[in-house]
Amino acid sequence: MASSPARESSAAPLSAAPVAVPAQSAVEDAALPLRHNADIQGDILAGFRKDHVRLLLLRFANPTAARRWLARLRPRIATTQDVAVFNSRFSSARRRAAGADPADMAAIWRSIGFTWNGLVTLAGSPPITDIPHGSTQDAFVQGSARRAGLLGDTGRNAPENWLFGAPHHEPVDAVLTLAADRAEDLRAAVAWERQELNLHGVSLVFEQEGATLPGDARGHEHFGFKDGISQPAVQGFDEPDPENPEHKRGEPGTRMIPAGEFVVGLPMDHRLPAWLPDWMNNGSFQVIRRLAQDVSGWREQVTGHLAELKRRDAVPEDTEPGWLAARLVGRWPSGAPVLKHPDRDPLPNPALKPDNDLSYADDLEGRVTPLCAHLRKTSPRDGLKVAPGAPGTLPEKGVLDGRRIMRRGIPFGPPMDPEGVGGGPDTPRGLLFICYQSDLVAQFEFVQRNWVNDPDFPDRPQPAGRDMLIGRDSEVSFPAGGKESDRTVPLSFRQFVRTEGAVYTFVPSLSALDRLAQGTIPRGGAGPQDRVFRGPLTLRRFEVISSGRARLRLQPSGEFTVHDENERLLWRSGIHDGAETGEFRADGALVLHDRRGRVLWSTPTAGNPGAELVVRADGDVLIRAADGRRLWHTDTAH
Predict the structure, then answer these.
(1) Tell me, which fold does domain 531-633 have in CATH?
(2) Distances 624 to 54, 549, 616, 633, 635 between C-alpha atoms, Å
């Protein structure tokens, strides 16, 4: 490669006329502004969607040289607009070619993320100093290896067995992602980046390849199932259905999620932000995990457990292994949901769109799609009860939508083929798991801890067991005897998927990359500042409002507390058994109430519409009237 253009791409015409981007009206542009965003890095909202990927895990030797390297890299980083425009052109050309990929359109994309250590090195000092205990900042600073025990990465999955990202490895400061349509283009781009790294004394700690599987397996993972189906849509980026604006146009069941769930600083509609400094706006937290897949173990256990179910008269004698495998996942290999197609895979045609229009409201006990199926453990949709034994289900809009992550995974290693060269069971293969979110704790870590690896989720009389696909060793309660039965059969599953490395990075905006390259991010990112709210405002357990010197929380014990910047307790409301949520009401009262809405504790400030809750930069927490009078405070200024 003789030169390194900012973002290499080629899009030769399919015929005499070049492929053009379909014209959009001003109304469409205004409605979907994120498609034209040139500050958010590509792959977060606009996925790279390439067949060949390489991750370069890097370490900086010298801050000044690292900043020079970043300044030279910066023009080659893809933006959301770059990727969205190319994807639109590519999709249009593909439609015109009856579903075939246009051979004369290709692009090479790059993105860059930094670990906590990498950001400190570039900034010259900690770029975040307000780090409340239990927050996404806390998880990011600790890094994935220190969080391993919380996430179930123990035993064979423990960091001491990892290939990268563990304390005994060379530290990772940055992860440079390269993605291309053609393998030869990727090799050339990687060669260029290696030269740049050597020129600036940036060392390569680990190199991870990824590629889509060949032939008919393209788009599938190594166990044989179509991957990436249940992706959320994003408000302001994806076009909503005019008839059902909570869903994406042309994809019933694909919910429109606020962009702030994936990009820091953009709107959210259900929870408090993480109180990150302004320089982190338009960035996203990235999780990278190398997950080894035991394909032969998967097949053996599916076959063995099916035989056990037949011995117990739990399934008909003519049931095939694919039936059980589909129930472990929640979908058939084509992506068709078991919920709608319980007997067989109805989609042999790979061109047909998989179905996301699912409701578990009529399968709350998991008789059709087991409660331990991967699909239900990672995205329970409307299949969660309001409370054990209570009627009704939790709505997806709000808290459940706020658990969604944007996945960008790709397989690594060759397909399992014992007869082929390099296709045996001992050949490394698996999934390179990559996801983006605005809050590591509330999204990725919550799903991993509270859903995937919690045998009691969802709450039912018989423990559901851990996620049968990606969870740790587990005994699950498998439904037997059909939809009308309440019988279950216990099955013990060994782990199929093992963690072999993990890294947390932050993927900054393009403007933040400029500031990092210039070394102009101030210590802490910003100083303490007042946080001001008007009711109604809901505060849930573990959530925090932080001003930098005061942290107001609703504790799991059922009380409000205020801690200072060093997590020293300054004030508490007192424990109130049964307190589920807190609320700052429109009438000016800060209250604790139980699941039924009964008030258990309240400030004496009701009857003041327009009042504000203020968590102050001086450490005090107060409620002030609309005319500015102080109505109540914790007296915790310091």
Answers:
(1) Agglutinin, subunit A (2.90.10)
(2) 54, 19, 12, 9, 13
Helix, coil or strand: residue 127: coil
CA 606, 611, 612, 616 dihedral sign is negative
- B/e letters for 154-175, b = 16+ CB within 10 Å, e = fewer, are eeebebeebebbbeebeebbbb
More confident residue, 335 or 575: 335
In this predicted model, what pLDDT tens digit does every residue of 395-427 receive, in sequence order? 888 889 999 999 999 999 999 987 776 778 889
For the chain, domain boundaries = 33-291+502-518, 295-402+443-495, 531-633
Mean pLDDT of 208-235: 95
Tokens of 434: 């990559």
> What is the pTM for the complete model shown?
0.93
C-beta of residue 293 within 8 angstroms of C-beta of residue 223: yes
**Tokens 């802490």 label which residue?**
524
139 touches 132 (CB < 8 A) = no
CB 476 within 8 A of CB 490: yes
Q: Within 13 Å and on the Cβ side, how many CA atoms surround 118?
A: 31
Do the beta carbons of residue 82 and residue 204 sit within 8 Å? Answer: no
Query: Which burial class, exposed, middle or buried, applies to 151 when counting CB atoms under 10 A from its CB (0-12, 13-18, 19+)?
Result: buried
Give the amino acid at 528. P
DSSP 478-502: EE-S-TT---EEEEEE--SEEEEEE
* 348-358 per-position pLDDT tens digit: 665 567 689 99
